[in-house]
Amino acid sequence: GQQLNQSPQSMFIQEGEDVSMNCTSSSIFNTWLWYKQDPGEGPVLLIALYKAGELTSNGRLTAQFGITRKDSFLNISASIPSDVGIYFCAGQPVSGGYQKVTFGIGTKLQVIP
Amino acid sequence: NAGVTQTPKFQVLKTGQSMTLQCAQDMNHEYMSWYRQDPGMGLRLIHYSVGAGITDQGEVPNGYNVSRSTTEDFPLRLLSAAPSQTSVYFCASRPLDGSEAFFGQGTRLTVV
Protein backbone atom coordinates (compact mmCIF):
# COMPACT_ATOMS: atom_id res chain seq x y z
CA GLY A 1 0.00 0.00 0.00
CA GLN A 2 0.89 3.65 0.00
CA GLN A 3 3.58 4.93 2.33
CA LEU A 4 3.11 8.29 3.99
CA ASN A 5 6.07 9.83 5.74
CA GLN A 6 5.13 12.55 8.18
CA SER A 7 7.72 14.71 9.90
CA PRO A 8 8.67 15.72 12.39
CA GLN A 9 7.20 13.11 14.72
CA SER A 10 7.25 15.51 17.65
CA MET A 11 7.95 19.16 18.31
CA PHE A 12 8.43 21.35 21.36
CA ILE A 13 8.01 25.02 20.59
CA GLN A 14 7.67 28.28 22.46
CA GLU A 15 4.31 30.02 22.45
CA GLY A 16 4.24 32.55 19.63
CA GLU A 17 6.55 30.60 17.34
CA ASP A 18 5.57 29.38 13.90
CA VAL A 19 5.36 25.64 13.19
CA SER A 20 5.86 23.65 10.00
CA MET A 21 5.22 19.99 9.35
CA ASN A 22 5.00 17.98 6.18
CA CYS A 23 3.99 14.71 4.60
CA THR A 24 5.47 12.94 1.62
CA SER A 25 4.11 9.98 -0.29
CA SER A 26 5.45 7.36 -2.60
CA SER A 27 2.26 7.67 -4.68
CA ILE A 28 0.37 10.48 -6.33
CA PHE A 29 -2.61 11.74 -4.36
CA ASN A 30 -5.65 13.67 -5.54
CA THR A 31 -6.69 14.79 -2.05
CA TRP A 32 -4.71 15.81 1.00
CA LEU A 33 -6.34 16.21 4.41
CA TRP A 34 -4.97 17.60 7.66
CA TYR A 35 -6.51 16.58 10.99
CA LYS A 36 -5.86 17.54 14.61
CA GLN A 37 -6.40 15.16 17.51
CA ASP A 38 -6.76 16.55 21.01
CA PRO A 39 -5.91 14.23 23.93
CA GLY A 40 -8.70 11.71 24.52
CA GLU A 41 -10.61 12.81 21.43
CA GLY A 42 -11.02 11.73 17.84
CA PRO A 43 -9.33 13.55 14.93
CA VAL A 44 -11.02 16.67 13.61
CA LEU A 45 -10.53 17.90 10.06
CA LEU A 46 -8.61 21.18 9.79
CA ILE A 47 -8.03 21.64 6.06
CA ALA A 48 -8.82 19.71 2.87
CA LEU A 49 -6.84 20.20 -0.36
CA TYR A 50 -7.99 19.00 -3.77
CA LYS A 51 -5.67 20.47 -6.39
CA ALA A 52 -1.92 20.46 -6.95
CA GLY A 53 -0.44 23.78 -5.89
CA GLU A 54 -3.50 24.71 -3.84
CA LEU A 55 -2.80 26.86 -0.81
CA THR A 56 -5.59 27.03 1.78
CA SER A 57 -5.83 28.85 5.10
CA ASN A 58 -7.99 28.29 8.16
CA GLY A 59 -7.25 31.02 10.68
CA ARG A 60 -3.61 30.67 11.71
CA LEU A 61 -3.28 27.42 9.78
CA THR A 62 -2.10 27.24 6.18
CA ALA A 63 -1.73 24.06 4.16
CA GLN A 64 -0.43 23.45 0.67
CA PHE A 65 -0.90 20.65 -1.84
CA GLY A 66 2.52 20.05 -3.38
CA ILE A 67 3.04 20.52 -7.11
CA THR A 68 4.32 16.96 -7.50
CA ARG A 69 1.08 15.69 -5.83
CA LYS A 70 3.28 13.60 -3.55
CA ASP A 71 3.59 16.00 -0.66
CA SER A 72 1.74 18.47 1.52
CA PHE A 73 2.70 21.01 4.15
CA LEU A 74 0.93 22.45 7.18
CA ASN A 75 2.05 25.68 8.82
CA ILE A 76 0.76 27.12 12.09
CA SER A 77 1.58 30.74 12.75
CA ALA A 78 1.96 32.37 16.17
CA SER A 79 1.31 29.18 18.14
CA ILE A 80 -0.81 29.24 21.28
CA PRO A 81 -1.20 26.65 24.07
CA SER A 82 -4.43 25.24 22.63
CA ASP A 83 -2.51 24.19 19.49
CA VAL A 84 -1.18 21.27 21.53
CA GLY A 85 -2.19 17.92 20.06
CA ILE A 86 -1.34 15.44 17.35
CA TYR A 87 -1.59 16.57 13.74
CA PHE A 88 -2.23 13.96 11.07
CA CYS A 89 -1.93 14.22 7.36
CA ALA A 90 -4.02 11.92 5.19
CA GLY A 91 -4.01 11.37 1.47
CA GLN A 92 -6.40 9.82 -0.99
CA PRO A 93 -4.66 8.20 -3.96
CA VAL A 94 -5.67 8.83 -7.55
CA SER A 95 -7.01 5.28 -7.89
CA GLY A 96 -9.43 4.06 -5.30
CA GLY A 97 -12.14 5.62 -3.21
CA TYR A 98 -12.15 7.11 0.25
CA GLN A 99 -11.42 3.70 1.75
CA LYS A 100 -7.94 4.06 0.26
CA VAL A 101 -7.17 7.14 2.37
CA THR A 102 -3.83 6.64 4.14
CA PHE A 103 -2.91 8.43 7.36
CA GLY A 104 0.51 9.59 8.45
CA ILE A 105 1.79 8.60 11.90
CA GLY A 106 1.20 12.09 13.25
CA THR A 107 3.19 15.04 14.54
CA LYS A 108 2.87 15.57 18.29
CA LEU A 109 3.02 19.28 19.07
CA GLN A 110 3.82 20.65 22.50
CA VAL A 111 3.64 24.40 23.11
CA ILE A 112 5.58 25.88 26.00
CA PRO A 113 3.84 28.95 27.44
CA ASN B 1 -25.78 17.66 18.37
CA ALA B 2 -24.26 14.22 19.01
CA GLY B 3 -22.33 13.51 15.75
CA VAL B 4 -20.55 10.14 16.06
CA THR B 5 -20.99 8.36 19.38
CA GLN B 6 -18.83 5.43 20.44
CA THR B 7 -19.31 3.19 23.44
CA PRO B 8 -17.66 2.14 25.61
CA LYS B 9 -14.85 4.64 26.06
CA PHE B 10 -12.63 2.14 27.86
CA GLN B 11 -12.65 -1.66 27.96
CA VAL B 12 -10.42 -4.41 29.33
CA LEU B 13 -10.86 -7.93 27.94
CA LYS B 14 -9.27 -11.24 28.66
CA THR B 15 -7.76 -13.16 25.77
CA GLY B 16 -10.46 -15.17 24.02
CA GLN B 17 -13.37 -13.02 25.17
CA SER B 18 -15.73 -11.47 22.67
CA MET B 19 -17.24 -8.02 22.64
CA THR B 20 -18.90 -5.45 20.44
CA LEU B 21 -17.80 -1.84 20.08
CA GLN B 22 -20.77 0.33 19.33
CA CYS B 23 -20.86 3.25 16.90
CA ALA B 24 -23.82 5.45 16.06
CA GLN B 25 -24.11 8.61 13.98
CA ASP B 26 -27.03 10.99 13.64
CA MET B 27 -25.93 12.85 10.51
CA ASN B 28 -27.48 10.43 8.00
CA HIS B 29 -24.07 9.69 6.52
CA GLU B 30 -23.85 6.81 4.07
CA TYR B 31 -20.17 6.02 4.67
CA MET B 32 -18.99 4.64 8.01
CA SER B 33 -15.67 3.12 8.94
CA TRP B 34 -13.61 1.69 11.76
CA TYR B 35 -9.93 2.49 12.35
CA ARG B 36 -7.41 1.38 14.90
CA GLN B 37 -4.72 3.71 16.15
CA ASP B 38 -1.43 2.30 17.37
CA PRO B 39 1.77 4.16 18.33
CA GLY B 40 3.93 4.84 15.32
CA MET B 41 1.37 3.38 12.91
CA GLY B 42 -1.13 6.14 12.22
CA LEU B 43 -4.76 5.25 11.66
CA ARG B 44 -5.39 1.96 9.87
CA LEU B 45 -8.71 1.06 8.28
CA ILE B 46 -10.33 -2.13 9.62
CA HIS B 47 -13.72 -2.27 7.86
CA TYR B 48 -15.97 0.18 6.11
CA SER B 49 -19.51 0.48 4.80
CA VAL B 50 -20.99 2.62 2.04
CA GLY B 51 -24.56 2.06 3.14
CA ALA B 52 -26.94 -0.17 5.03
CA GLY B 53 -26.41 -3.81 4.11
CA ILE B 54 -23.00 -3.17 2.50
CA THR B 55 -19.67 -3.76 4.22
CA ASP B 56 -16.13 -4.36 3.02
CA GLN B 57 -12.68 -5.02 4.40
CA GLY B 58 -10.05 -2.42 4.95
CA GLU B 59 -6.33 -2.74 5.48
CA VAL B 60 -6.40 -4.79 8.73
CA PRO B 61 -9.70 -6.74 8.90
CA ASN B 62 -8.53 -10.01 10.47
CA GLY B 63 -10.12 -10.74 13.84
CA TYR B 64 -12.95 -8.25 13.35
CA ASN B 65 -16.49 -8.48 11.99
CA VAL B 66 -18.94 -5.72 11.14
CA SER B 67 -22.53 -5.37 10.04
CA ARG B 68 -24.63 -2.42 8.88
CA SER B 69 -28.32 -3.07 9.38
CA THR B 70 -29.22 0.63 9.61
CA THR B 71 -27.71 3.87 8.33
CA GLU B 72 -27.08 5.02 11.90
CA ASP B 73 -25.25 2.07 13.45
CA PHE B 74 -22.01 0.29 12.58
CA PRO B 75 -20.89 -2.08 15.35
CA LEU B 76 -17.46 -3.71 15.38
CA ARG B 77 -17.23 -7.23 16.80
CA LEU B 78 -14.21 -8.98 18.22
CA LEU B 79 -15.07 -12.68 18.28
CA SER B 80 -12.02 -13.87 20.22
CA ALA B 81 -9.88 -11.04 21.55
CA ALA B 82 -6.10 -11.25 21.30
CA PRO B 83 -3.42 -9.06 22.94
CA SER B 84 -2.51 -7.79 19.45
CA GLN B 85 -5.92 -6.12 19.35
CA THR B 86 -4.98 -3.81 22.20
CA SER B 87 -5.43 -0.41 20.59
CA VAL B 88 -7.55 2.70 20.39
CA TYR B 89 -10.48 2.24 18.02
CA PHE B 90 -12.14 5.06 16.15
CA CYS B 91 -15.39 5.05 14.25
CA ALA B 92 -15.89 7.67 11.54
CA SER B 93 -18.66 8.71 9.19
CA ARG B 94 -19.00 11.00 6.20
CA PRO B 95 -21.39 11.58 3.33
CA LEU B 96 -20.47 9.68 0.16
CA ASP B 97 -19.93 12.94 -1.75
CA GLY B 98 -17.84 14.66 0.93
CA SER B 99 -14.27 14.33 2.10
CA GLU B 100 -14.62 15.41 5.72
CA ALA B 101 -14.78 12.43 8.02
CA PHE B 102 -16.30 12.92 11.46
CA PHE B 103 -14.69 10.79 14.13
CA GLY B 104 -16.02 9.48 17.41
CA GLN B 105 -14.11 9.97 20.66
CA GLY B 106 -12.55 6.53 20.48
CA THR B 107 -12.60 3.32 22.50
CA ARG B 108 -9.43 2.38 24.34
CA LEU B 109 -9.29 -1.43 24.39
CA THR B 110 -6.82 -3.48 26.38
CA VAL B 111 -6.62 -7.25 25.94
CA VAL B 112 -4.77 -9.08 28.69
Q: Can you walk through the features of this model?
A:
- The complex is a heterodimer of chains A (113) and B (112).
- With 113 residues, chain A is mostly beta strands.
- Chain A has no helices and 11 strands.
- Helix content of chain A is 0%, strand content 56%.
- In chain A, strand 4 (29-37) and strand 5 (44-49) form a beta hairpin.
- In chain A, 37% of the residues are buried.
- Chain B has strands at residues 4-7, 10-13, 19-25, 31-38, 42-51, 54-57, 64-66, 76-78, 87-94, 102-103, 107-111.
- Chain B contains no helices and 11 strands.
- Chain B is mostly beta strands and 112 residues long.
- In chain B, strands 2, 4, 5, 6, 9, 10 and 11 form a 7-stranded mixed β-sheet that branches. In chain B, strands 1-3-8-7 form a 4-stranded antiparallel β-sheet, with no helix packed on it.
Number of helices of chain B: 0
Give the helix proportion of chain A (percent range): under 10%
**Estimated helix fraction of chain B:** under 10%
Radius of gyration of chain B, CA atoms, in whole angstroms: 13 Å
Provide the low-confidence segments of chain B as ranges.
none
**What's the shape of chain A?**
globular
Q: What letter string, H or E per element, gives the SSE order of chain A? A: EEEEEEEEEEE
Largest sheet of chain A: 6 strands, mixed
Q: Tell me the series of helices and strands of chain B, N- to C-terminal.
A: EEEEEEEEEEE
N- to C-terminal separation of chain B? 36 Å
Taken as a percent bin, the fraction of beta residues of chain A is over 45%
Largest interface: chains, residues each? A-B, 24 and 24 residues
Q: Unreliable stretches of chain A, pLDDT < 50, 5 or more residues? A: none
β-strand number of chain A: 11
Beta percentage of chain B is: over 45%
